């Protein structure tokens, strides 16, 4: 098995796949993902990608302005400008790669509206845009001879050694059962996605345990704004951990948000009503819950033409039918839940972290584009623009920097113990209590003390390195970082909450 690579990319979401496609074809590249190649938050994206593609009625300046307003003006202006100016080019490139965005009756790309956008500018493939993009990117990546893909292989160790990196991955295929595999790389791109699984309820897929952020933190990379967590207002209120999202675009197409009495209420809290940015709508729901004394909320689009609903939202319609609800007839029970992380591994405009040679792209990174609250459909765009930037930077560096590979060996496992049951459940319970939509400073302080104990126990307990152990340690690290940030910022994150 090959041991030395020019670039190792950890993650096969939009950031990892799109970044890989832009690396120089002379570079030897390995992409690793811990489950199936398609299991990622990227594949779950419904609404679409925001970009100014019709200069006849939209303008990059409006996209910048909308992004800054949603982010509570806590965004990095240079990063937002790069996102909005370069976004349209990346979206056109996606089309060249075969991504099929919906078109209107005139054959023009159909653009939809989502909360916080002043113009309809969201390109989409029905209501399963992420899956369409990921599938087309995979097809293209698989054609590249310089790229190797490992599925079901979790990276559990990453160290800077000399000019390069040593990587410890548990490799799994028909001949190997989670065997340690040591790799050397000149450059590493962390594209490991979000942290949703640190909360009890999330829209995120099972891979979202914050591994990349925990690995970068361990290496001393700067981590920023981890308390900037987005809670989506309209996840389906089922009793399962992974909550199915009812996309923003359902409100964009006119769905009404109702309280337990069947009354619209959002304009009580914001003149933009249902189309206010997500944090505002989530907070509106929590305020309305206090006012009416009930946590029952509904999304209702049943007044629209059933044919339109079924054609526009086929995936959501089908998923809700399985739960016993008909989107064309019934108000759908919804409630906020964890959805997205705006903070992450701090990077510059080239997606370079504070550790030389280490790059971070997509949801695990903090580019500063989202400020304190992400504007809908800006995160796929961020993954495209900033993974391309990372690839460009690596390409340029690789031409002048010598190809040296460190010894990648890691010490043998420190122990044989298996982690006690219930660790993840306890972390999630603490986070749900301490940091849901509006953080509770007292519970956050008490929760932080307990999570620090859990993390110490995981580090010192002589545990065998396994998929389970590593993810539990990542969750404990992320929970600590979030609660520390909550304690420092308190409520001083206006817009985020
Ligand atoms: C339900 C839902 C709907 C959304 N809708 C939209 C939308 O309409 N528009 C929009 O712009 N955004 C949307 N988002 C957000 C957006 O999808 C994500 O922010 C974005 O896709 C993240 O992409 P990524 O490449 O950074 O990470 P992901 O797509 O999450 O990929 C992470 C990858 O990292 C791998 N990985 C993680 N840890 C390890 C490890 N230790 N070892 C090996 N591999 C590892 C995983 O296996 C996976 O391949 C949505 C998110 C959700 C959850």
Overview of the molecule:
It is an enzyme of class 1 (oxidoreductase). It is found in: Cytoplasm. Residues 6-380 form the FAD-dependent oxidoreductase 2 FAD-binding domain. Belongs to the FAD-dependent oxidoreductase 2 family. NadB subfamily. Its cofactor is FAD. This protein is of the alpha/beta class and 497 residues long. It folds into three domains: 4-228 and 342-400, FAD/NAD(P)-binding domain (3-Layer(bba) Sandwich); 233-337, Alpha-Beta Complex (Flavocytochrome C3, Chain A, domain 1), CATH 3.90.700; 423-489. Helix content is 36%, strand content 19%. It contains 14 helices and 19 strands. The chain has helices at 14-21, 41-44, 60-70, 77-96, 129-142, 211-218, 248-252, 278-292, 306-312, 314-322, 379-400, 423-434, 441-460, 467-489; strands spanning 4-10, 29-32, 49-50, 111-112, 122-123, 147-150, 154-161, 164-173, 176-190, 223-224, 229-236, 256-258, 297-300, 332-341, 344-346, 358-360, 365-366, 435-436, 438-439. Strands 1, 2, 6, 7, 8, 9 and 16 form a seven-stranded mixed beta sheet that branches. A four-stranded antiparallel beta sheet has the order 11-14-13-12. The longest helix has 23 residues, at 467-489. The protein is globular, with a radius of gyration of 22 Å. The N and C termini lie far apart (48 Å).
